Amino acid sequence: xxxxxxxxxxxxxxxxxxxxxxxxxxxxxxxxxxxxxxxxxxxxxxxxxxxxxxxxxxxxxxxxxxxxxxxxxxxxxxxxxxxxxxxxxxxxxxxxxxxxxxxxxxxxxxxxxxxxxxxxxxxxxxxxxxxxxxxxxxxxxxxxxxxxxxxxxxxxxxxxxxxxxxxxxxxxxxxxxxxxxxxxxxxxxxxxxxxxxxxxxxxxxxxxxxxxxxxxxxxxxxxxxxxxxxxxxxxxxxxxxxxxxxxxxxxxxxxxxxxxxxxxxxxxxxxxxxxxxxxxxxxxxxxxxxxxxxxxxxxxxxxxxxxxxxxxxxxxxxxxxxxxxxxxxxxxxxxxxx
Length: 338
Fold this sequence. Notes:
Radius of gyration: 25 Å
Helix content: 40-55%
Oligomer: single chain
CATH class of the largest domain: Alpha Beta
Keywords: Receptor
Structural class: alpha/beta
Family: Belongs to the UPF0065 (bug) family.
Strand content: 15-25%
CATH topology of the largest domain: D-Maltodextrin-Binding Protein, domain 2
CATH architecture of the largest domain: 3-Layer(aba) Sandwich
Number of domains: 2
Number of strands: 11
Number of helices: 11
Protein name: Tripartite-type tricarboxylate transporter receptor subunit TctC
């Protein structure tokens, strides 16, 4: 009888396991169904898209254009919110800590990858703590110089900096920004001394450059081509591998005596990690449609910026690649938060 009782116990155990397995399947199915329902209802109220810079810069300008086009497609308002500070850390971390429901997004730049690399203590992981949604734009930068220095070429700038060591400064939208790294890479390649002056966004930095309170800025041309055309700033070079289509008569830095130099910037939309896949897909589709708007494409192309979207997975791969490359660049240029 003992073997029989043993078999009965095993049978009961198997039944319990089947019940548990069934419950797991039901829960998994419920979770999938819940996500599908959530996606179908998304969005049911306005979406907040955070820009980790002060108003007035290229990221702010492009973000507002994108938000307007996305609003039309999604049927809900996409509200842009400027949250500057901490070299983009304040705004970025606010999104990381937000609910993963698609209603809080980050409109980020290269600084999204660079900022964590500049801190000794852990801040956030750009790959693990966020869900990529889509790339939106790419662009080379322009080297903009105050007319007060009367410098017209890269060689003029290098010669002036060597003749006045430590007196030339360059502004950026903040520590860890693509502008900051472009300037550091230029300083290293040209073997000159330049003092970095970080701001809380391109807007306030550009205001001081126009006023002649700072000397140089490596910046997007979006919002700045008029300043160049009207003589308020001198554009001495662009930083891409090829000449910028919007300024075909302006040479690249590489053409101007620093072969191999190249720097650029990108903008992308990200969400908190754990955002449901159907919601991410809906947002990605809205961005793809917005990116085809003639208003966005033509306006940005005239200022040297290319509209370029991607899948979430392609953006994740790009973030991983950039993180590795920026680690090498930061070490080479000895760039820190100081």
